[in-house]
Design goal:
This protein is mostly beta strands. The protein has no helices and 7 strands. It has strands spanning 10-13, 19-33, 44-58, 79-86, 89-104, 110-118, 131-135. A hairpin with a 5-residue loop joins strand 5 and strand 6. The chain is globular and about 60 Å long.
């Protein structure tokens, strides 16, 4: 078994451009409160699986994340997001960019952080129908 080296990772997301620095993906089920009236404590169950995360990019001088619609994936359809840890190790799914955070630090580094969410197809019957995992 070999360690994954992040420098060979990448993000492909139609509409989101920039010099990608990092990405995160949180894969977790929603929480459903199933407590009954008169329960002495909360009872919870797992709900539908979801993916949320961030993509951090260094802003470039050619486009603005605040004024260029090319930086946002709008509408109800979203776009395919492919997160690559290294060659042959990817997660691909349809996602919506929900917001972006723009920041500049004291050293002058200008970044944009895209916050995305899974946008499952309406005909999906399994989580596997929503997400393609390649881990070879």
């Amino acid at each position: 078994m070999a360690a994954i080296i992040g420098t060979s990772g990448n993000v492909s997301f139609a509409g989101a451009v920039g010099l990608i620095k990092s990405w995160t993906a949180n894969i977790a089920p929603s929480e459903i409160d199933i407590s009954a009236f008169g329960s002495v404590g909360k009872q919870r169950a797992h709900g539908i699986l979801d993916i949320t995360g961030t993509i951090v990019a260094t802003m470039d001088s050619g486009s603005s994340p605040a004024s260029s619609s090319a930086w946002f994936v709008t509408g109800a359809t979203g776009a395919t997001c492919t997160l690559t840890a290294e060659s042959g190790k990817t997660l691909a799914f349809n996602a919506l960019i929900r917001s972006c955070d723009i920041s500049v630090d004291v050293n002058g580094e200008a970044n944009v952080t895209y916050n995305y969410q899974l946008n499952a197809p309406t005909d999906a019957t399994t989580f596997g129908a929503c997400v393609t995992v390649t881990w070879a």
